[in-house]
Design a protein that fits this description.
This protein has 285 residues and is mostly helical. It folds into two domains: 2-41; 66-284, MetI-like (MetI-like fold), CATH 1.10.3720. The protein has helices spanning 2-41, 46-49, 64-72, 75-106, 112-121, 131-140, 148-170, 175-183, 188-199, 201-217, 220-225, 234-239, 249-284. It starts with a helix and ends with a helix.
Length: 285
């Protein structure tokens, strides 16, 4: 009797495992399919895309679509602009947010609660609701059609989320570390740069990734604030690949693949760090 129960349990566990793996395989296929479709789409001609072979492998692999996008379509220039804007946004956001969080969590000063509330209110403001006032402000200071026209708004809207993440993580760092450093003669700046910043690396990775995704994929501000080809980012530049009368869809697909690669790289190599830092920050907070 016991052997029959063990056999039934083992059989049930086996079928459960098979079913689970089948579901995971199906879910993985659903997630990977858009990437497969985009890559194959970028290697086809217009006639093949609209001729009944939209989902299959290309009959003729048109690698020239990437040359058209990178050289003729100036995707390489747009890519570098996106790297500059996104990189500057991440660096400024991390530095400013770390300093603000340290002051809010470790220092005592007047209007401290008001400042904390000010940052939290920033989380409730949709980024595109400020489109018109930000544009007027940038035009007044003659910053339209420049890297600053994108970096400054991106940083402003990324800081509240960064402060919230850093606050939850920094609140769990023991104050005894700072007290010991003070007794050893370390200044406030020394404590911040030598003790707090190294301990905040997991949270910094999280903020950097969230800021990267926001800045890299943003379109509305980039369309309104940038009209000069010299400063266009990928999201805007790829739109310009569409002609007035004809559209080379293969070249557009190639541009989209180029724009997607950095996001995939960040996800593959950094997703585990984000999960770990969020869990640690939640436990410490």
């Amino acid at each position: 009797m016991k052997n029959n129960r063990k056999n039934l349990t083992a059989s049930h566990n086996k079928y459960s495992s098979v079913l689970m793996y089948m579901l995971l395989f199906a879910w993985s296929a659903i997630q990977i399919f858009p990437i497969y479709w985009l890559v194959t789409f970028s290697l086809k001609s217009n006639s093949e895309i609209f001729g009944g072979n939209a989902l299959g492998l290309p009959k003729e692999w048109l690698w020239t679509n990437y040359a058209k996008a990178l050289i003729n379509g100036k995707v390489s220039l747009y890519f570098m602009n996106s790297v500059i804007v996104t990189g500057a946004t991440i660096i400024i956001t991390v530095i400013v947010s770390l300093m603000a969080t340290y002051a809010l969590t470790r220092m005592i000063f007047k209007f401290k609660k008001s400042m904390s509330l000010f940052y939290m209110i920033g989380l409730t403001v949709p980024i595109h609701s400020a489109l018109l006032p930000v544009f007027i402000m940038l035009r007044t200071f003659k910053l339209v059609n420049s890297y600053a026209a994108l970096v400054l708004p991106y940083v402003a809207f990324a800081i509240p989320m960064a402060v919230m993440i850093f606050t939850g993580f920094m609140a769990g760092i023991p104050r005894e570390l700072e007290e010991s450093a003070c007794l050893d003669g370390c200044s406030v700046y020394g404590i911040f740069f030598r003790i707090m910043v190294p301990l905040m690396k997991p949270a910094v990775a999280t903020v950097a990734i969230f800021t990267f995704l926001q800045a890299w994929n943003e379109l509305m501000f980039a369309v309104v604030f940038i009209s000069d080809t010299k400063y266009k980012t990928l999201t805007v530049g790829i739109q310009s690949l569409a002609g007035q009368y004809t559209i080379d869809w293969g070249a557009i697909g190639a541009g989209l693949v180029v724009a997607t690669i950095p996001t995939l790289i960040v996800y593959i190599f950094m997703s585990k760090k984000v999960q770990d830092s969020l869990v640690v920050g939640a436990i410490k907070g």
